[in-house]
Amino acid sequence: MLKNLTISRRLTWLNALVSASALLLACLAFLTYDQVTFKRSLLHNLSAQAQVVGLNSISALVFNDPDSANTTLSALRSSPSILAASIFTSDGRLFASYAVDPRYAIRMGPVIPEGHTEAYVFTGEQVVLSRTIVFGNKVMGTITIRGSLAELSGRLRQYLGIVLVVLIFSLAAALLLSAAFRRAVAEPIVQLAETAQLISRDKNYAIRATPTGNRDETALLIESFNEMLAQIHDRDAALETERARLNVIVDNAPVGIVLAEAPSGNIIIFNRRATEIVGHDLLPSPTVESYGQWNTLHADGRPFAPEEHPLARAIQRGEVVQGEEYRYVRSDGRETWIRSSAAPVRDKQGRIVAGVLVFSDVDEQKRAEEALLRSEKLAAAGRLAASISHEINNPLESITNLLYLALTDQTLTPQTKDFLAQAEQELARVSQITTQTLRFYRQTTNPTSADVGDLVESVFRLLKGRLAQTQVEVVREFRAGTPIVCFEGELRQVLTNLIGNALDAMGNTKGRLLVRTSEQRNYATGEPGVRVTIADRGSGISQEILKRIFEPFYSTKGNRGTGLGLWVSKEIIAKHRGTIRVKSKVGVGTTFSVFLPMSCLKQDHGDIADIASA
Amino acid sequence: MTAARQFSIARARRALTLAELACFAALVTLSLQLPARAQTSKPTEYDVKAAYLFNFGKFVKWPVNISSSDVFSICILGSDPFGSVLDSTVAGESIDGKRIVIRRISAASDALNCRIAFISSSEKGRVADIMAALAHAPVLTVSDIPHFAGKGMIQFVVMQDRVRFEVNLDAAEKAGLTLSSELLKVATSVKREGQAGR
């Protein structure tokens, strides 16, 4: 009944109940006591009356004078509580009787047990008491008196009335008092409950319960509550700091990090790098099955089943995956190599609650490995070609001399002379090829001093055939007069690449190619050097491609290009402590600008030798 | 006495239901016994008189200076109308710790040592002499001779089939005897100086 009431109401009712029941019990006890003592005194009284009347009736009994006995009995009229009285002789005969009303008349009384002088019996609202009348040692007869208990029930009614009045007044007093108690006991608890509710609703752990100022259990409760709040607050702050730190670490990690819940596989955390690597958002991924939407491929091109994914294996099987490599098709269509590690996160009971995936884009690394392999092959081929050219040079020299000698013969027919002249011409070409080959692939041990303009001219001569097939107008602006110390062959390779690219960009259009050389100083160091600018009016390069043109094996020419030209050029210029920059606008043209310091190779010959042999 | 009564009340209260049961039981036994008693022992006039004679002794006080005999003698002067009734009535009884003896005498002077003297109706003509002989003697004189109460102390009368008695208080007082008020209460009449009997 009291379960759903508030504490204060409960206190009120408890107070009322306690005081009411205490009062009732006390009243009941008093009532019972009163009834018992009243009965006892009534019996006492009746017994005394019986004794007196009995004594006064002895002679009447002895001398058989009922009239006298009747007179004696009728004296009982003065006692209102006595309804009737009778005297019986010792042989049980009714000797004398008196009754207020005939219906109360006593015809026989309770039998007095052997050895006793008195007996009584309560019947409803009356009590009947018998007492022996003894004279000398002889029982002369018995006197029986019927007493009324009406006074008893009258007292009972009176008492009940008093109890009722007292009960009503004390209940009212209890309710009034409990209102005061409520303030002292319930109010702090009610306030505490309200505070707790407020905190739980607003999640504001900075709120504190107001102390009562008392030193009781409630105060202790409030104190403990506040302490717990402070602890929660501190813990929250610590957690927040920790989370912020972790966020910074995760967000700035150079690897992709993904955290998914177990067993669902729902991804809850991922960092910026992760989306950069895969090229798309990782949400929503609510289940392991949803991992199937990622274009993950085995090395042989077979797509991954969702549960084959390292993260899925960590979540579902508790597997720890380390450094597994696979291919991934990014959202932009580019395929990249990814290396993944994954591990399950377990709680104290060892159950898997989450899985972590850490991965990095190893495409560049993979390609660099391949490039290294390829450049090594190229270097080998170059060395082979150089040694072949070297071996061919000597016989070529002999054949050239022999052809020259043969032409001096005056007996030759004009036709034979013509053939020989043609042979000499073709041989000159062969000789040029071998020389070129040697220049490209076998570095001279020492750098030489060269005029940049001459170098450009030599490249143009090399590309004469290609130039003739185009409608490109070549404009030369050679203003640099000071020669620079360099590896001629390598610089020629750079220039060939750049000019070749410019010609490719213009294709069959009627374009213009500007090659300018000028003496300039390095912006940053003020070091003197030569700047070579090669500008075309070709198709131009988009910003996206422009970022990657110096990457190895990046080519827009398909099968025609190796993707190595600009990368090798950049390496060579770096070797000469120079810089290469590019400006381009789609549809307008592209300008490459190479700066080479004059004393680029004077300082450390040993270093150069190392690079040259590499 | 008081302690005993309280004790018995306590006992009786404890056995309240027992008392009720006993009450019922008594009803049954009494209803069986009462008619039987009524049939067999209807007391005769002298039966009653014998009992009264004996009981008078209990309601009378004799002067303290009388002979300290260890017997309480009830004398019958003249012919004995009781037969054996009186003897059997007082058999084993005592008054004031004194054994009761019945003496049958013929001379009035013999009655001087008696406590109670019953003057038989055979002595009807000698009442004045006898009373003179016993004048001032501490002897309760009782008789059923008519008008005896004029000189004697107690006279039996039969009224409405019941034996009653008259008392001459003056005669008793002259003899130094004190009659209990209880006795006077049940007497049909009490003669006193200048007073009529009640």
Spatial strand arrangement across the major sheet of chain A: 7-6-11-10-9-8
- For this structure, what is the CATH class of the largest domain in chain A? Alpha Beta
Kindly report the CATH topology of the largest domain in chain B.
Rossmann fold
CATH class of the largest domain in chain B: Alpha Beta
Q: How much of the polypeptide of chain B forms β-strand, as a percent range?
A: 15-25%
* Rg of chain A, Å, rounded: 64 Å
Can you say what the CATH homologous superfamily of the largest domain in chain B is? Response regulator
- What's the Cα radius of gyration of chain B? 21 Å
The DSSP helix count of chain A reads: 15
The biggest beta sheet of chain A is recorded as: 6 strands, antiparallel
Helix content of chain A: 40-55%
- Can you tell me the CATH topology of the largest domain in chain A? Heat Shock Protein 90
Biggest pleated sheet of chain B: 8 strands, mixed
Poorly predicted parts of chain A: 603-614
Uncertain segments of chain B are 1-10, 12-19, 26-40
Q: How many helix segments of chain B?
A: 7
Category from helices, strands and their pairing of chain A: alpha+beta
Mean pLDDT of chain A: 84
Question: What's the pLDDT, averaged over the residues of chain B?
Answer: 78
Number of strands of chain A: 18
